[in-house]
Prior knowledge:
The chain is an alpha/beta fold. It has helices at 43-50, 68-71, 92-98, 101-104, 112-124, 140-154, 170-185, 200-203, 220-223, 226-233, 244-248; strands at 5-14, 17-27, 32-36, 58-63, 75-78, 158-162, 189-193, 206-211, 213-219. The longest helix is centred in the last third of the chain and has 16 residues, at 170-185. It is globular. The model has no long low-confidence stretch (mean pLDDT 88). The chain binds adenosine-5'-triphosphate (ATP). Adenosine-5'-triphosphate binds at residues 14, 19, 37, 39-45. One of its GO terms (molecular function) is ATP binding. Residues 5-237 form the ABC transporter domain. InterPro entries: AAA+_ATPase, ABC_transporter-like_ATP-bd, ABC_transporter-like_CS, Metal_Ion_Import_ABC, P-loop_NTPase. Keywords: ATP-binding, Nucleotide-binding, Transport.
Amino acid sequence: MVHPLSVENITVAYHKKPVLHEVSFTVPEGKLIGIIGPNGAGKSTLIKTILGLVPKASGTIEFFGSTYKKQIKRIGYVPQRGTVDWDFPTNALDVVTMGRYGHIGWMKRPKKEDIEIAKACLQKVGMLEYADRQISQLSGGQQQRVFLARALAQDADLYFMDEPFVGVDAATEKAIITLLNELKERGKTVLVVHHDLQTVKEYFDWVLLLNMRVIAYGKTEEVFNLDNLQKTYGGKLAFLKERPALAREK
Ligand SMILES: Nc1ncnc2c1ncn2[C@@H]1O[C@H](COP(=O)(O)OP(=O)(O)OP(=O)(O)O)[C@@H](O)[C@H]1O
């Protein structure tokens, strides 16, 4: 069976300091998968390594049983908001239309149909009225919605999203999770770096608990428990005292 993503034994180091150690996991199709772990656990590095943005020291990565290059059109990425240059002089509609380039081809002009698709995606995230607005003049949550619209316009089969819920209000968070569930219903696979342990069970079918290495990976109901959380977060789990519901579910 061909999986959307297969990661085998990847090890990554920055300036010879190991950040990810022999990470292996295989992602099933049509699931929402949360990547969970403390600050500095290597979550962003993992996504960037998978996408070829950070070099790996060893290991192999396959997309739909093939290489990233061959499957690039099927792979979508929503980066962490803080890493995007929002001063880039472009408006919301152009950002979303860029999501279509895999279909249009670089150097070619988008067709009317691509613009219509981009507008429909802006509509879907409630941002159509901001289509002509410079992205630098949007709020953080609105920028996040525009990036999600771009991912939608791309119509990929495998998505990576780095902390899409950070800094957004409750309405935007709800809009994003609705959208992720819609993608899932269409058979898409979505990996999401996520911080809020309270919502993990509600949002994700599978979880990857990461702290430099894979602590646990599998169906949320099977691996998201206090024991594994303690292994992942170590002494930083004091906050669980404030969340007795989670602690009780051991
Ligand atoms: N470009 C870089 N050069 C050197 N070290 C880096 C670089 N990027 C990240 N690191 C280090 O690698 C480790 C993992 O960082 P990473 O950003 O992947 O963690 P994370 O789990 O995504 O953290 P957070 O939850 O805080 O976003 C950290 O110790 C970080 O300081």
